[in-house]
C-alpha cells in the first residue's frame, strides 16, 4: 500500500511548479486538490548505445527516483528496508553497466558478485516487508495511569 507523500516531499514537488519533471527523471502529475502522483522513470537498461558515464547517470537517476517513491510508513525499520531495495537495485544496474566495458577480470568478478549478492539481499528485504507491512508499535509507549 502506497501512503501519501510526506510533507517535505510535497514541498519539494511544489518547488518544481512549472515543470513536470524532477532531477533524475521522476515525472510528477498535478491535479488540483489531489496529492501529486510520482511516476517512476523507465527501468535501467544497460546498453553500449550510451557511453559509460551516461549509463551510470541513468542508473543513479532510476535509483534516486525509486528511493524517493518508496512506500514509507513512519516506522524506521520498514522505511529503511523500503528505501534499500531501490538502492540495491541501483548497485546491480551500475555493475551491469560496468560489465559492458570492463575487461579487468578482478572487476568483472566483483561486478558479478555485486549482482548476485544484491539480488539475494533484495529478495530478503522483500520477504521482510511482506512479513512487516505496517508500522511497528511505538518503542516508547505512554506510561500507564495508576490511581
UniProtKB/TrEMBL annotation:
Alphabetized Gene3D superfamilies for the sequence: 1.20.1260.10
InterPro entries named among the record's database cross-references: DUF305_CopM-like (IPR005183), Ferritin-like (IPR012347)
Domain of life: Bacteria
Signal sequence extent: 1-17
Keyword check for Ribonucleoprotein: no
The keyword Ribosomal protein is annotated on this UniProt entry: no
Residue span(s) of domain DUF305: 47-129
Keywords, in A-Z order: Signal
Name of the featured protein: DUF305 domain-containing protein
Gene source species: Cupriavidus oxalaticus
